[in-house]
Write a structure and sequence with these properties.
The structure is a single chain. By secondary structure, the chain is mostly beta strands. It has no helices and ten strands. A hairpin with a 2-residue loop joins strand 4 and strand 5. It is globular and about 50 Å long. The model has no long low-confidence stretch (mean pLDDT 89).
Amino acid sequence: MLPAGIRSLPTQPYNSMPMIHPGEKILMRVASAGRDLHPFHHHGNHARVIAKDGRMLETAPGAADLGYEEFTIPTVPGETVDAIFGWTGYKLGWDIYGTGLGHEHDCMDGDADDFDDMTSEYCPDHGKPFPVQLPEKQDLTFGGFWTDSPFLGGAGSLPPGEGGLNPFGAYTYMWHSHTEKELTNYDIFPGGLMTMLMIVPHGVMIPH
């Protein structure tokens, strides 16, 4: 999750913290290096597997019609798997932008596909309240990505020294190896084969 090219990670020249806006799609390439199995578990949504070992899963060139969805992508040593991941908040059951709570907006669906034409919000959930009452602050343990708001782009007040890793109110999902022992560095969690996906609100620039 650190920036690309830092001196302390000379063998990792690029970062591995994907960031997308709702409605966008990204290509993930799972490269299974080493001799162990590293099943890749991505929270947030299923991904559509479209290729293995650089070959499209298709019956004819350009068809890509043999793709399938996975929530954990199994790979064997030496194999690569390409998959497409996207996120819209489809059927979450609440308005991800928190309409009625100081985040007034409309859901404009000009092409009748159930999604806002600009933000990709799932319009049938527009205006629906968050389905549970959040605990009081004294009953919570704060993670670095928590912003005191369950809404995309939202933020609240946190105790001094808490949070700080999510300045744009992104939704964050842990992506990691499902061989659980690989989620530590020297038996300390979090670490190892793990990163976070950040879904940032539209209007927030994603660095490349």
